[in-house]
Design brief:
Layout lengths: L1 H6 L6 H9 L1 H20 L7 E9 L4 H10 L5 E7 L6 H6 L4 E2 L18 H23 L5 E6 L5 H12 L2 E6 L3 H7 L4 H14 L5 E4 L2 H10 L9 E3 L13 H9 L1 H4 L3 H4 L16 E6 L8 H11 L12 E6 L6 H13 L6 E6 L4 H10 L2 E4 L11 H8 L4 E4 L13 E4 L2 H12 L14 H12 L5 H8 L1 H8 L4
Parallel strand pairs: 1-2, 1-4, 2-3, 4-5, 5-6, 6-7, 8-9, 8-11, 9-10, 11-12, 12-13
Helix pairs in contact: 6-7, 8-9, 11-16, 14-18
């Protein structure tokens, strides 16, 4: 309208003229983006051939599925860039591929909230983090990241990375592949966040998710939801279910391997006193009176109620040492840290000091190495999953790792879990009372074969035998069957 007024020789209203000049930087930015998009899509359309990018707004070293994607992608792409937070060290397989294909130079530090904002409400601190990422991520995705053909993005989180990644792919002519782990807005609902923010988050996931060229889903239920309920996936052929699978190094550990692991204090997770309850230092056979060893992984957040486990352990403790039950129990709870960790660690200390847990030793800690964690699962007698799905549409990775290690599992029940845990490989529970019943079933009629890698009870023996004779397959096989054909097509030279 302003240009038309000038062309016909009329002086535009002052407010309209001022608005035009105030928006001049915006017009310049739009023009620059148009030129940049032309340069990326037309002049440099072949520069991204064979290159891929893995994106997760989180600690890359604590994102096993995205690390496995990286290793698999390195087998088909010429170069794989990783955009994520630099925190815990990645697994050894990723480190090996950094020598040729994988590029970790775009890893960045997490967003730290300044001290003067520490006492302010959650909303203020969250807005600060989002604003920092809104400034940082477009620079990385539009400028620092070399042109790629495929961008594989983990969701959640969706804000602000999903709109940023969608826009970067639109401008630069890259294919966006979304890996749906869960629905992020349901995590906010579970955490009792403001309804308006939950609604905005939900809209971002639903709307911007439609911009993906292909969708990967961790289970069949979330794919059905995205197709039938949300319509985010318009054509079911543009999505596939990529179940989590444990890598090959998750496996049952023999008694010699268990001895080596325990002799090092379970990689400093167990004290010497606790380790020697299982077998003498340097030994190769179990103590006949060794404890049962159970493992539970947790993020110490609201979607995993460790209190249920502690209540169950308190109820189980008087049975330990009686006929048919283990003489004692070592419960290892692994997890780096979360909002509720200090509260639960204090409660554990109190329960052990006041003898509520007289025959139960609870150990908390974190293993930096995936291989060490895999060995711990391979040595254990039983695994416990406390994961309560916020959406009812995801599957816990920790259970996948346990089953990959032929470790029978006791898991908190929710509808989608049936895709993973069956009566043949585990038991489910809904509260501390049903968890006690499940643990009694798993540990009842306890006996120890001193030369075998695992103690045996009828329930543990049946489920472990089923897992050993009916393996769920490994990550590489699943990825090559489900993802490799799609990625190969998207990585191919663009005409």
């Amino acid at each position: 309208k302003l240009q038309f007024l000038y062309l016909i020789g009329q002086r535009p209203p002052p407010m309209l003229s001022m608005l035009w000049w105030l928006c001049a930087p915006l017009w310049g930015l739009v023009a620059a983006l148009v030129v940049y998009s032309f340069q990326q899509r037309v002049l440099c359309r072949r520069s991204g051939d064979g290159k891929a990018c893995i994106v997760v707004v989180g600690d890359y070293g604590r994102s096993p599925r995205m690390q496995y994607h990286t290793v698999s992608m390195a087998g088909v792409a010429k170069k794989v860039y990783v955009v994520a937070y630099d925190g815990s060290p990645p697994c050894d397989d990723v480190k090996k591929r950094t020598e040729d294909v994988v590029d970790l130079s775009l890893l960045m530090g997490g967003v730290e909230v300044p001290g003067f904002l520490g006492a302010l409400p959650w909303v203020v601190k969250t807005v600060y983090k989002v604003l920092v990422l809104v400034l940082r991520l477009p620079y990385v995705m539009l400028w620092k990241l070399p042109k790629c053909n495929v961008v594989l993005l983990q969701n959640p989180p969706a804000l602000p990375i999903l709109p940023v990644a969608w826009f970067a792919c639109l401008v630069r002519g890259m294919h966006l592949v979304l890996d749906w782990h869960n629905l992020g807005y349901t995590l906010m609902e579970m955490d009792h966040r403001p309804a308006l923010l939950v609604a905005v988050y939900r809209m971002v996931e639903k709307v911007f998710g439609r911009g993906a060229s292909f969708h990967l889903c961790v289970c069949a239920a979330i794919k059905r939801f995205l197709v039938e309920d949300w319509g985010t996936i318009r054509d079911a052929r543009d999505a596939d279910v990529m179940y989590d699978k444990a890598p090959a190094f998750f496996k049952r550990v023999g008694v010699a391997g268990a001895g080596a692991f325990l002799s090092k204090g379970g990689e400093k997770l167990l004290t010497k006193q606790v380790s020697e309850k299982f077998m003498p230092a340097g030994g190769a056979t179990w103590h006949p009176t060794r404890p049962a060893l159970m493992v539970s992984g947790t993020s110490w957040t609201v979607d995993e109620d460790v209190g249920i486990l502690l209540d169950a352990l308190a109820a189980l403790d008087p049975l330990l040492g009686t006929s048919g039950y283990p003489p004692s129990l070592v419960m290892v709870i692994t997890g780096k840290g979360g909002a509720l960790k200090d509260m639960y660690v204090d409660r554990i200390s109190k329960m052990m000091s006041d003898k509520t847990l007289a025959r139960t030793t609870v150990v908390t800690g974190y293993l930096d190495s995936f291989q060490d964690y895999a060995t711990l699962l391979g040595v254990a007698d039983c695994g416990v999953s406390l994961h309560n799905s916020s959406s009812g549409l995801d599957l816990p990775m920790k259970v996948v790792d346990m089953l990959g290690s032929a470790l029978p599992v006791v898991a908190y029940d929710f509808p989608t879990l049936a895709e993973l845990v069956t009566p043949q490989n585990g038991v489910t529970f809904k509260d501390s009372a049903t968890l006690v019943d499940a643990l009694k079933d798993m540990l009842g009629d306890w006996r120890v074969d001193t030369s075998d890698a695992a103690a045996a009870t009828p329930a543990l023996e049946r489920k472990r035998a089923h897992l050993l004779t009916h393996p769920r397959g490994d990550w590489a096989s699943e990825w090559n069957a489900k993802v490799r054909p799609v990625v190969s097509r998207l990585l191919s030279p663009q005409r």
